[in-house]
Amino acid sequence: MTPLTIPAMANAHSHAFHRALRGRTQHGTGSFWTWREQMYDLAERLTPDLYFDLARAVYAEMLAGGIGAVGEFHYVHHQADGTPYDDPNEMGRALLAAADDVGIRIRLLDTCYLTAGIGQPAEGVQRRFSDGSADAWVERVAAFDDDRVGAAIHSVRAVPRDQMSTVAGWAAGRPLHVHLSEQPAENDACRAAYGLSPTEVLAEAGVLGPRTTLVHATHVTDSDVRTIGDAGCFVCLCPTTERDLADGLGRGADLRAAGARVALGSDSHAVVDLFEEMRGVEMHDRLRTGVRGHWSAQALLDCATVHGQAALGLDPAGVVTIDPASPRTAGTGADEHAAVFAATAADVTEVVVDGRRVFDGDHARVGRDLDAAIEKVWA
After folding, report:
1. Active-site hit among 267, 273, 285, 302
2. What's the pLDDT at 25?
3. Is 27 considered catalytic here?
4. Catalytic residue among 177, 216, 284, 307
């Protein structure tokens, strides 16, 4: 049977270190906010060497699932007490080196993260994230001298409204990503502080535009949806994380109809499988509306490939081979419908990126490397 091939996919939203939480945060009760405390405990443990080893294993897992490019939303910048490393960008350089080592293309979305909440100073582990001001953030990222570095505003919670334009100004001509309206509490706090929705705050600050990617956009109003579409933004949906964290059901079809370009991410890496993310976009719209068939297979594949690459400021580069006769794909036909609605990351047999063979089908080896890297983080 002829192998099934598709373009290499782009994971437009990744927090590589979150992968070490898989299997440790899915049990019991709680919310996004209780999960966040567990994530902060993990963030305290990271060193540049540990982060390199973990990110290298996670990026290899992405390659094994047919992902040829990653947007790394990076905010663990400093030492545990908030003191910069001798090289203030040492943690970011560890991520770039990890990507180089395995052969995945990367856009390091260096993240401005200044406050614990609106009007609240960074505290505890958040001191690792904060540069103190947007001007200090600009000074640090300008020292990278690497054209793979883009920018991110963590959220309206973490960057004061009057400092957002500084980040957006530095990012001119580069990808700029922002977490948006992931939780109702974020919207409530924003309206209480500014009298505006998070989308309206970003629009007022000059953040929105065709190089801007809004991550999640789960709890947006109809007016917000129109604003996002009119600005020509990307929206990065992360269905497996959004359901794992009980965030809510995304409005992918509405955002696309308004003019937004939809990309995909695996975010917290509760699952690293962009085939599942593609299906999740359609399934979430079905659950939200009670109607099937919002997205064609080709439209979803575009989200995972063309739009994802564009959201990272990259051109497509790479090919993925999928087993057309696995227990999941057998009998479905070797076409985009089989890839989108039947295949999983486990069905990927080969990945080539920029002419380099970066995955040879050995999923077991990838698993062993992940196990070793994660064990070191928690040791």
Report:
1. 267
2. 78
3. no
4. 216
172: CB partners within 8 A, 6+ apart? none
Among this protein's residues, is 354 annotated catalytic? Answer: no
Q: Is 173 exposed, middle or buried (0-12, 13-18, 19+ CB in 10 A)?
A: exposed
In percent, how much of the chain has pLDDT > 70? 100
Taking the C-alpha atoms of residue 275 and residue 376, their distance in angstroms, rounded to an integer, is: 29
Q: What radius of gyration, in Å, describes the C-alpha atoms of the chain?
A: 19
Q: What is the mean pLDDT of the chain?
A: 96
Is the pLDDT at 29 greater than 80? The verdict is: no
Q: What are phi and psi of 319, to 5 degrees?
A: -135, 140
Q: What is the DSSP letter of 23?
A: T
Helix ranges, 174-296 (H): 184-194, 198-204, 222-231, 239-244, 252-258, 274-289
Q: Which two tokens stand for residue 250?
A: 């995304």
Per-residue pLDDT at 28 exceeds 80 = no
Per-residue pLDDT at 147: 95
CA distance 58 to 15: 10
Q: Where does the pLDDT of residue 172 fall: very low under 50, low under 70, confident under 90, or very high at 90 and above?
A: very high
Q: What confidence score (pLDDT) does residue 26 get?
A: 78
Name the CATH superfamily for 4-378: Metal-dependent hydrolases (3.20.20.140)
How far, in whole angstroms, is CA 295 from its chain's centroid?
21
